[in-house]
């Protein structure tokens, strides 16, 4: 409480409460209201032992009946739940008042000099009251100016504790807010505005100093503003996050003329590096063996705007194993988005069963490999008709009603052969023999077909194939039938 402010103007509730003083002065008593200062002041100035206490009553009504009119400074305890309550005689209004409701004007009547706290502090300093018991200061919320952990011994004077509590300055309320608290990765040329606000809470005090500091590690601080002039904003321009991208911390400290001080911090964070994103396509993903010609397309998207793209390289891998091989040379990449367009048609891969593609992107931060597109190459299964008792591979592969599959199992609807045509069924020989043929989902007619000798050669794309061939025993055997091979 600042000097030259009267006790009568002391607010009922301050950041330093009477409960704190009494908890120190009378350990364990649990008395928490300003009325108790009458007894404390009497003790401190040699006035005797608590002359204003009039007793404990079972109810307020009992107190009012026993003492309908008290004297200024009289107080009593009234039994209540969960805790007893303390009442003081309010001479201004002629009532027994619960102490938490006593106006400041009544407090001025409790003793001491009501107009000069400096005189009160001096009186307390010279007072001879001492503590009868020893204790250690330990308050849940300690605003007394006496640190928790302070050991008090029997016989120690009371006065320094009360004086410290009365004269303790209140902390200012401080706030610091920085615009642009979230910055991109590796941002340079950062211009920030630090907004400063504060409230001086010590009555009668004024601003003494404002300090604004900056740190990159929240440990080592550099002061760049130190002034006694009221300031609301500070421009911090031209900062460079550089490649470490550590946060930027700001610490504001405000001190008032009574010695009250407080500080707070704000932080500007930088996004983590984000690797480029990629999409990739190689066209049709399931094709006939040997159909290896592909155009690989896609898009590279830069996800860290301050990290420039450099190059990209399309790579491939055959049959799901082995090394990744570059297609041509690296291609320059730039901007926030880069289109991918690379052709691939390597005749040495003609008999591959699969080719996988990916993209390797180099930017100013690192090399990233991502994206995936895989093309699988399979046999062509056929069902068709011919008048010959045997057919060449080229004739077989040219038959209609085909499907791309390495399986022998297929169901074909609408099978119709003219009177002179045999029905042929051919597929990848590696799938093994047909074990069952159902006609129209009911009749088992495997015996209506003859397995011929496998035929081998190259298909229309130049890939090597070996086909297993079944031929109907009779020409014109089926009319609009459904055949299921398995």
Q: Name the helicity range.
A: 10-25%
**How many distinct beta strands?**
33
Quick one: biggest sheet?
6 strands, mixed
State mean pLDDT (0 to 100 scale): 83
- Rg for CA atoms: 47 Å
How many helices in DSSP terms? 7
Shape: elongated
Distance between the termini: 98 Å
The domain tally reads 4
Would you kindly provide a written description of the structure presented here, covering whatever features stand out?
The strands form eight sheets. Strands 16, 18, 19, 20, 22 and 23 form a six-stranded mixed β-sheet that branches. Strands 24, 25, 27, 30, 31 and 32 form a six-stranded antiparallel β-sheet that branches. The protein is elongated, with a radius of gyration of 47 Å. Helix 5 packs antiparallel against helix 6. The protein has four domains: 7-167, no CATH class; 173-270, SOR catalytic domain (Immunoglobulin-like, Sandwich); 277-377, Immunoglobulin-like (Sandwich); 379-485, no CATH class. 11% of the residues lie in helices and 40% in strands. It has 486 residues and is mainly beta. Strand 1, helix 3 and strand 2 form a beta-alpha-beta unit. The protein has helices at 18-25, 37-44, 60-66, 104-107, 117-126, 159-167, 393-398, and strands at 53-57, 75-78, 85-90, 95-98, 135-136, 151-152, 173-178, 182-183, 188-199, 207-215, 222-227, 233-240, 248-256, 261-270, 277-281, 286-288, 294-301, 309-318, 325-326, 331-332, 337-344, 354-363, 367-378, 380-386, 403-404, 410-415, 422-428, 437-439, 443-444, 449-451, 455-458, 464-472, 481-485.
Short description:
The chain is mainly β and about 475 residues long.
């Amino acid at each position: 409480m600042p000097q030259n402010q009267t006790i009568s103007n002391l607010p009922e509730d301050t950041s330093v409460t009477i409960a704190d003083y009494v908890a120190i002065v009378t350990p364990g008593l649990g008395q928490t209201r300003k009325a108790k200062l009458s007894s404390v002041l009497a003790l401190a100035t040699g006035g005797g032992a608590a002359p204003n206490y009039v007793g404990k009553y079972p109810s307020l009504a009992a107190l009012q009946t026993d003492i309908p009119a008290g004297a200024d400074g009289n107080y009593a305890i009234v039994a209540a739940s969960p805790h007893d309550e303390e009442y003081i005689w309010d001479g201004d209004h002629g009532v027994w008042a619960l102490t938490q409701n006593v106006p400041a004007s009544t407090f001025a009547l409790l003793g001491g000099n009501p107009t000069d706290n400096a005189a009160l502090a001096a009186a307390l300093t010279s007072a001879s009251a001492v503590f009868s018991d020893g204790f250690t200061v330990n308050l849940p919320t300690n605003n007394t100016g006496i640190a928790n952990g302070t050991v008090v011994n029997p016989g120690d004077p009371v006065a320094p504790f009360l004086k410290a509590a009365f004269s303790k300055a209140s902390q200012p309320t401080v706030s610091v807010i920085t615009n642009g608290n979230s910055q991109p990765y590796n941002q340079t040329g950062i211009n920030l505005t630090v907004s400063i606000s504060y409230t001086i809470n010590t009555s009668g005090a004024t601003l003494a100093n404002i300090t604004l500091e900056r740190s990159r590690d929240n440990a080592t601080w550099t002061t760049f503003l130190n002034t006694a002039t009221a300031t609301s904003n500070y421009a911090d321009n031209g900062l460079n996050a550089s490649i470490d991208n550590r946060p930027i911390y700001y610490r504001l400290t405000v001190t008032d003329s009574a010695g009250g001080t407080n500080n707070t911090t704000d932080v500007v964070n930088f996004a983590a590096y984000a690797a480029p994103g990629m999409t990739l396509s190689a066209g049709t993903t399931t094709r006939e063996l040997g159909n290896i010609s592909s155009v690989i397309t896609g898009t590279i998207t830069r996800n860290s705007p301050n990290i420039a793209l450099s190059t990209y390289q399309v790579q491939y891998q055959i049959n799901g194993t082995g090394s990744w091989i570059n297609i041509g040379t690296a291609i320059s990449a730039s901007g926030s988005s880069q289109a991918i367009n690379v052709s691939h048609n390597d005749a040495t891969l003609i008999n591959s069963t699969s080719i996988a593609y990916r993209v390797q992107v180099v930017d100013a931060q690192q090399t990233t490999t991502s994206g995936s597109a895989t093309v699988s190459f399979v046999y062509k299964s056929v069902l068709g008709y011919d008048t010959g008792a045997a057919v060449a591979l080229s004739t077989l592969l040219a038959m209609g009603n085909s499907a791309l599959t390495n399986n022998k199992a297929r169901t074909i609807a609408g099978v119709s052969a003219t009177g002179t045509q045999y029905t042929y069924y051919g597929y990848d020989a590696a799938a093994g023999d047909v074990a069952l043929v159902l006609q129209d989902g009911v009749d088992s007619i495997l015996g209506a077909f003859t397995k011929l000798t496998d035929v081998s050669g190259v298909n229309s794309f130049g890939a090597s194939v070996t086909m297993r061939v079944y031929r109907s025993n009779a020409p014109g055997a089926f009319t609009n039938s459904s055949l299921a091979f398995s």
